[in-house]
Design a protein that fits this description.
The chain is α+β, with helices and mostly antiparallel strands and about 70 residues long. The protein has a domain at about 30-70. The protein is about 25% helix and about 30% strand. Strands 1-2-3-4 form a four-stranded antiparallel β-sheet, with no helix packed on it. A hairpin with a 4-residue loop joins strand 1 (about 5-10) and strand 2. Helix 1 runs antiparallel to helix 2 (about 50-55). The chain is globular.
Length: about 70
Amino acid sequence: MPSTSINKTEYDPARRILSVWFVAGGKRYEFEEVPPETYAAFRSAFVKGRFFNDHIRNRFRYRRVPGEGDS
């Protein structure tokens, strides 16, 4: 099911970095040390926003990645 809050995700298993692009504002965040099992569960979750809030948000160190349009 498409998410209303998450636009896109990418995962780098070598670095264990999860990149998440949000619908609101198109902002991208990178979450560090995300286990491959967590990413697999996230991808297969029926409600991605709920899974993100319950299992990723506030559980992994993150940073905002500046993008186009940022000043």
